[in-house]
Design goal:
The protein has about 140 residues and is mainly beta. The protein is built from 1 helix and 9 strands; from the N terminus they run H-E-E-E-E-E-E-E-E-E. Helices cover about 10% and strands about 30% of the residues. Keywords: 2Fe-2S, Iron, Iron-sulfur, Metal-binding, Signal.
């Protein structure tokens, strides 16, 4: 009886998994290796927890976000669906594509927050050494 229940449960689990087929169309790698400093006047707002700054670079610009005073994340402002000529805007801890109104969370690795969006925002690695910031995908 336990084997039947286990088999039935695994069968349901197998068929309920969603396909990753559409994720293959997502833009994943954009070459970037950018060095900057938090003392740069352009980055003054990113010095405080919850603060952010827009940086030139990437495809449509880069959002640098200060998560908690020590940890930073950076995202390309290119709409993940690559269907928009405008850069994404940042509001309420979300990146927003103005062409299709899709949103992406900076707190959850650029995960889509809109039902019709499948690809996450492009996230870069951020390394901090004192006030020096390195944003890269290497």
């Amino acid at each position: 009886m336990i084997k039947k229940i286990l088999f039935f449960g695994l069968t349901i689990l197998l068929f309920s998994c969603s396909s990753n087929e559409n994720l293959a169309n997502c833009i994943r790698t954009l070459p970037l290796n950018l060095n900057t400093d938090l003392n740069n006047p352009q980055l003054i707002n990113a010095q405080t927890p919850g603060g952010h700054a827009d940086i030139n670079g990437g495809t449509k610009g880069i959002l640098l976000f200060n998560k908690n005073g020590n940890d930073f994340v950076a995202f390309d402002k290119l709409c993940p669906n690559n269907d928009c000529d405008n850069a994404m805007i940042f509001e309420n801890r979300l990146l927003k594509c103005t062409c299709d109104e899709s949103t992406y969370s900076v707190d959850f690795g650029g995960a889509p927050q809109t039902d019709n969006a499948q690809c996450p925002a492009i996230q870069y690695q951020v390394f901090r050494n004192g006030t020096a910031i390195r944003i890269t995908n290497f």
